[in-house]
Amino acid sequence: MGACCSNLCFCLWPSNIKSHVLYSSDIENWAENEQLNLPAFKEYGLEELKAATSSFSVNNIVSEHGEKAPNVVFKGRLNGNGRWIAIKRFQSSAWPDSRQFLDEAKTVGQLRSKRLANLLGCCCQGDERLLVAEFMPHETLSKHLFHWDNRPLDWVMRLRVAFYLAQALDYCSSKGRELYHDLNSYRVLFDQDCNPRLSCFGLMKNSRDGKSYSTNLAFTPPEYLKTGKVTPESVVYSFGALLLDLLSGKHIPPSHALDLIRGKNFLMLIDSCLEGHFSNDDGAELVQLASRCLQYEPHDRPNVKSLLTSLTSLQKEKDVPSNVLMSIAHETTSPTQVSLTPLGEACSKCDLTAIHEILEKTGYKEDEGIANELSFQMWANQIQETLNTRKSGDSAFRDKDFTTAIKCYTQFLEGGNVKSPTVLARRSLCYLMIKKPQEALADAMQAQVQFSNWPTAFYLQTAALFTLGMDSDARETLRDGLSLDFRRMRQ
């Protein structure tokens, strides 16, 4: 990384932009060759999306402008497969023509790239107009640049954001979607691996919202103020404003930034929180690139391919994962991305039917070797009655009479000194079945106390925590269970 930027200097115009040879695998084919585990675009039912968002509860709003925004974004989880989704809900007047909405959504839905938060589907019922996209768990670039809690965004990560964003725009252009509406730091999201992605929502413009740019007029491309139309050059202008955000850690109006650059006061653009931890040359090139993007005349701005060429050479520490650069623990988000056991997968999806089948089939083999002694009094007087109670619970569990199973298992556990993590696991699932996740969590935790290295106890806690809406804790517990499973496999 390098020295402080005190000696930063450069010519303002394109003559000293380096020419870089790009391999096709780096730019042209990276998106085409990637394997994305995504379903085909589909039309969702309104009731399905209501169920996923608790009837569009305000508690599920994730758009940073909140419920007063013209188009609100909700976080949701599909009941069928447990996939997390982001749902953009338009005002009823935004798309009066349902056919136009569906056609636009289907076109955007054909795009598939690891640089996009991809569109999975839409819903068009009555006055409802909703877009469904991949959910990105690590928030927006705006949050990490302007409202960070622990540490500012690393310089190398800022360069990666610019590069990935240029790749996203290049991919969209190659698929005939050159126009992106209101490109800004709210539109850049971070996925489960903390890789930056461009929201697909900006690829669709409200047909009747009266404008494409919702940000302050100081950040709007000059030609848009004249014509009201977005062009590919307008997108490049907005990209330049984003480069200023990355450079400064602030939302600086482009006109002010250009005045600083022309007056040789460009050092004032550099985020003081970086404390000199960036390369002089890299800083100079990025400032110059931003200034080219922000030229008043559209024909003076570079195209997306040129941006990509310039940003390629600035990439550093390519083998370091983004989550490491951002000091964020890696998220285990879906069983398609990690090798979970069937029980771990079922619990990560809260698939209670599958959990029931697995627990029933597994039986009590995990109780072997666990301290399971009966007191002398039980051997003398109570053993048969105690075992019969457990058998009754097992019979009810098998028949899916979960209320009766809970009653019998409770009697068994309270009837003596028998220690059975399997009974606790089965009762935990019973509580989940009758929608008592707090009690289910308590049983799963007690099973862990009795058998500290049992993955099943952690997986059941995962299901209970997800049901309680404690997603971060659930993912952490899922990782613990997975770690124990891997440890067992290696033994």
From TrEMBL:
It is found in: Cell membrane. It is a lipid-anchor. Its main location: membrane. PROSITE patterns: PROTEIN_KINASE_DOM (PS50011). The keyword Membrane applies. InterPro entries: BSK, Kinase-like_dom_sf, Prot_kinase_dom, Ser-Thr/Tyr_kinase_cat_dom, TPR-like_helical_dom_sf, TPR_BSK1_C. Pfam families: PK_Tyr_Ser-Thr, TPR_BSK1_C. GO terms for molecular function: kinase activity. Residues 59-314 form the Protein kinase domain. Keywords: ATP-binding, Cell membrane, Kinase, Lipoprotein, Membrane, Myristate, Nucleotide-binding, Serine/threonine-protein kinase, Transferase. Gene3D superfamilies: Phosphorylase Kinase, domain 1, Tetratricopeptide repeat domain, Transferase(Phosphotransferase) domain 1. Belongs to the protein kinase superfamily. Ser/Thr protein kinase family. This is Serine/threonine-protein kinase bsk5. The gene is BSK5_2.
